[in-house]
Amino acid sequence: MNNTINTETFAWVFGHVLVTITNEKISNIFLSFSDSALVVSDKLSELSTRAFYVINNDKIDDNIPLIFDHGTDFQLKVWNMLKTIPRGKTATYKEIAQQIGMPLASRAVANACGANPIPILVPCHRAIRSDGSLGGYNSGIVIKKFLLDREKLS
User: Fold this and answer.
1) 124 tagged catalytic
2) pLDDT digit string (tens) for 126-137?
């Protein structure tokens, strides 16, 4: 398979975001790169522009084409389930495990959330612990709390 991979960067409140586009679909988003690590793109492609508006302004765009170019079958089930959690809502790792038919896999669900290659667009920040605490977040708990609070206001 001939994969065309492009990367673009843009600024957001926590530093910079690196977007990887594989065959005209977003395949990875890396949050919170430091200012010195990247040069911000002068002009973004259509896909990166759409991701920019979702990430910076919490706009809804459920039609951004995404591709998971790696991940186990279990991770893919979790990541696809995360996309069904409504904006402003949360689901526990246990609830997600039950929804994918693996009720004892709460910890594995949390690990799959941590391995999510497309954060925010695949809203792993909406997955929390059963006790209501936030749990972890690959880009840091401050960012998870920021994202959840922002969604409650919109």
Assistant:
1) yes
2) 999 999 999 999
Average pLDDT over residues 120-128: 96
The one-letter code for the residue type at 147 is L
Provide DSSP, 35-89. TTT-PPPSS--HHHHHHHHHHHH----TT--B---S--HHHHHHHHHHTTSPTT-
Judge contact between 65 and 47, C-beta under 8 A.
yes
| Catalytic entry in 124, 128, 143, 147 | 124
- Estimate the crossing angle of helix 73-82 against helix 106-114, to 10 degrees: 80
pTM: 0.88
Rounded CA gap, 123 and 147, in Å?
A: 9
Q: Which residues pair with 30 in a beta bridge?
A: 18
Q: Could you give the domains of the chain?
A: 5-57 (no CATH), 73-153 (1.10.10.10)
Cα separation of 40 and 30, whole Å? Answer: 14
